[in-house]
Amino acid sequence: MQNLQKLISGLRSGDRLSLSKCITLAESEASAHQDLKDELIREIEKEEYRTFRLAVTGLPGSGKSTLIDSLGMHWVERGHKVAVLAVDPSSSFSMGSVLGDKTRMTRLAASENAFIRPSPSRLKLGGIAAHTYETILLCEAAGFDRIIIETVGVGQSETMAASLSDACLLVLVSGTGDDIQGVKKGILETADFVFVNKADGPTEKQAKAYAADLQSISSLWPRRRTGQQAEVMSGSALGDIHTNELLTRLEHFFRTVLNSGTWAMHRKDQKQEWFHSVWKEWMFKHLQSSAWLRSLLQQAEHDLDKGKLVSAILPRLKQKVREKF
Prior knowledge:
Order of helices and strands: HHHEHEHEHEHEHEHEHHHH
CATH superfamily of the largest domain: P-loop containing nucleotide triphosphate hydrolases
CATH class of the largest domain: Alpha Beta
Helix content: 40-55%
Number of helices: 13
Oligomer: single chain
Mean pLDDT: 84
């Protein structure tokens, strides 16, 4: 426990090695680490920091990492400390991930005021990793006031990332077939900002037309936390003018939700979301460890092997579980 307090002290002083060790502890599934992990989260959860959490999602190849690198550097130049939590998809076979995001954010990776942490999704839905929220808290405790969560990619389940952040930035590119139909409605409805990337060179005209189409249907999406419609813009992640304009809009949005009291309300919602996620995960693991449930499942699998129908097995299983619990 003494070593943990030393680690927390290093974390709060902004020591990057301490931060990395704390995140590793928070991500650990080893039973020997659970009490230490609970104590760590309990200590850092006592304080709340006035930070800006931005979820960035988009189609593979849309330029999310390039845009994040550019946005992050603009924030650093304005005196902010930037943490990027990049979630990589895990293999369903080995559970491994490439974790190569630092190679795509070269400028941020070299900055003393930036921290990039790739994490495997471990097949968790929602576009986030299993312990993204805890990692956010740790980065804030270490003094990072601008937190960027780069999600796995666009999908209906990506909305989980939006619920754990203060704003959601959706990065798109034109020329992917039926552009409007190619994006899931759920993530469009949670986006506070839509950035149509690669609006330069030969694709500029097409990208701007795509952005105009999105803007025309944005009135059908739910209102943002500020009560306004989502902002749609086009530009290039490689162009400082475009990314600087996007950053200015993001900062204005942050000040608006902060001054209106919406920020504080949303922080409470984020804690609720985190609590329910942790509780459901713990309950699932607890049920998996039940010898009675394992025996019930094995019997059901045996019946399936014998040719019985799923529609005949499930009602009996459900009834037995109801009687037990």
